[in-house]
UniProtKB/TrEMBL annotation:
Signal peptide: none annotated. Belongs to the aldehyde dehydrogenase family. The keyword Oxidoreductase applies. Pfam families: Aldedh (PF00171). This is methylmalonate-semialdehyde dehydrogenase (CoA acylating). Keywords: NAD, Oxidoreductase. GO terms for molecular function: methylmalonate-semialdehyde dehydrogenase (acylating, NAD) activity. The gene is mmsA. InterPro entries: Ald_DH/histidinol_DH, Ald_DH_C, Ald_DH_CS_CYS, Ald_DH_N, Aldehyde_DH_dom, MeMal-semiAld_DH. The keyword NAD applies. Residues 13-476 form the Aldehyde dehydrogenase domain. CDD domains: ALDH_F6_MMSDH (cd07085). Gene3D superfamilies: Aldehyde Dehydrogenase, Chain A, domain 1, Aldehyde Dehydrogenase, Chain A, domain 2. Its EC number is 1.2.1.27. It comes from Paludibacterium paludis.
Length: 497
């Protein structure tokens, strides 16, 4: 019997009564690992009701007690790291080493959640007027929801529910239906760490479940990571229902390579950032702009990419399969379209067969040179191991090219010139900038700050920004009267003096 993925409602893992199911498939072998339900509207409503009921007591739980749960949780994640990585690799395809990195970057946010006592502080000013004091408190919103993608089934859920719950909210999570198993194991560990019944709930499904979360009147905020198409829909639908929403969406991340860059370091980092996780990262460096003499480095980029090993994630190669056969076919079609539109195919990763895994969804590192705006392979997010090479004569020309792209998730520059790096970071219109750092995702002391078409909503996930997203600022102005000091007069003016 193929195992079934459960729902989590009110602290219990329960079987769905739905008639709609989807197979969870190992992308390296096509083995069916489990079946995941598409929850009914009644089940989504029950999950939200449970979260709403739990909020009444959870919001009054002392902040130290909340923090201690996440201290325990981070310990449990560390203890189960190998198990979690193996599960993630089986259902998502990424290498074991990359799976551990996926989990670790989520673990950093759990550790940050344990510091909530320092993060959720208000402000205080004494005697702002005669005997009047003013202070603010950061109070939780209520029930919040999260919708997560297939490419980081550990990290992205851990971006969401720990910070929401640590700030006093309750949560309904909808993991990706393509690889929910590692997410559910992380949820089991969260309950073991002490999260009370109803504070964290999980439902599975597709568009109907997403819409139900966006529409439900008791959900106060929705966090989303995924494609631009779905993210735009979620933002519009959730905000139309009066909710807060933050949507991290698609990308087209560029790296500028200047001829004065440290050549070995720049090329190695560029290739690693382009092809790691089989290119299935919203922060993958999918475009390199070679400036001036750096355009002569194309053969060496190709040489490094050709040397990468492709295989099943459990064998720990350099890159594993893409998530599905449909994804593989879409990537191959975009490569073909790029060639048709005039790009030069320097390295072709299509039609790759891995011995022993002939049914796997493999695409090898692919490099297209001479890419220009207007080509489908440039205009669309490929989300596969495809690197587009472009050329520019000057740094200013390269910056203008990046700023003309609608996306603003991440960018990088490789140079040894401080002046060039300074001009780049000032003039580039992208939310996250790397200087000799290919994937500039910040640690949780800061926040994820994609911009323009890559993000909808003002506040990013994790870090200080997400504390503001998951809380409502309440301002209290108080005055305490001494009987002897009371004038006993009616004052009809606005002044408090």
């Amino acid at each position: 019997m193929t195992p079934t993925v459960k729902l989590l409602i009110d602290g219990r893992f329960v079987d769905s009564t739905t008639s709609e199911w989807r197979d969870v498939v190992n992308p390296a072998t096509q083995e069916v690992l489990a079946r995941v339900p598409f929850a009914t509207r009644d089940e989504v409503a029950r999950a939200v009701d449970s979260a709403k009921a739990a909020f009444a007591t959870w919001k009054k739980t002392p902040i130290g007690a909340r923090a201690r749960i996440f201290l325990k949780y981070q310990q449990l994640i560390r203890e189960h790291m190998k198990e979690l990585a193996a599960l993630l690799t089986a259902e998502q395809g990424k290498t074991l080493a990359d799976a551990e990195g996926d989990i670790f970057r989520g673990l950093e946010v759990v550790e940050h959640a344990a510091s909530i006592g320092n993060l959720q502080l208000g402000e205080y000013a004494e005697n702002v007027a005669g005997g009047v004091d003013t202070y603010t408190v950061q109070q939780p919103l209520g029930v919040c929801a999260g919708i997560t993608p297939f490419n980081f089934p550990a990290m992205i859920p851990l971006w969401m529910f720990p910070m929401a719950i640590a700030t006093g909210n309750t949560f309904v999570l909808k993991p990706s239906e393509q690889d929910p198993m590692v997410t559910m194991r992380l949820v089991e560990l969260a309950l073991e760490a002490g999260i009370p019944p109803g504070v964290l709930n999980v439902v599975h499904g597709g568009p109907e479940v997403v819409d139900a979360l966006c529409d439900h009147p008791d959900i106060k905020a929705v966090s989303f990571v995924g494609s631009t198409r779905v993210g735009t829909h979620v933002y519009q639908r959730a905000t139309l229902s009066g909710k807060r929403a933050q949507c991290m969406m698609g990308a087209k991340n560029h790296a500028i390579v200047l001829p004065d860059a440290h050549k070995e370091q720049a090329l190695n980092q560029l290739v690693g950032a382009a092809f790691g996780a089989a290119g299935q990262r919203c922060m993958a460096l999918s475009v390199a702009i070679l400036v001036g003499e750096a355009r002569q480095w194309i053969p060496e980029i190709v040489e490094r990419a050709r040397a990468l090993k492709v295989g099943a994630g459990k064998d720990n190669p350099d890159l594993g399969p893409v998530i599905s056969a449909a994804a593989r076919e879409r990537i191959a079609a975009l490569i073909g379209k790029g060639v048709e539109q005039g790009a030069r195919l320097e390295l072709d990763g299509r039609n790759l067969t891995v011995p022993g895994y002939e049914k796997g969804n493999f695409v090898g590192p692919t490099i297209l040179a001479g890419v220009k705006p207007g080509m489908a392979v440039y205009d669309q997010e490929v989300f596969g191991p495809v690197l587009c090479l472009m050329e520019a004569d000057t740094l200013d020309e390269a910056i203008a090219l990046i700023n003309a792209n609608p996306n603003g998730n991440g960018t990088a520059i490789f140079t040894q010139s401080g002046a060039a790096a300074r001009r780049f970071q000032e003039d580039i219109d992208v939310g996250q900038v790397g200087i000799n750092v290919p994937i500039p995702v910040p640690v949780p002391l800061f926040s994820f700050t994609g911009s323009r078409a890559s993000k909808l909503g003002d506040l990013g996930p994790y870090g200080k920004q997400v504390v503001l997203f998951y809380t409502q600022t309440k301002t209290v102005t108080s005055r305490w009267f001494d009987d002897a000091a009371s004038s006993g007069k009616v004052n009809t003016t606005i002044s408090l003096r």
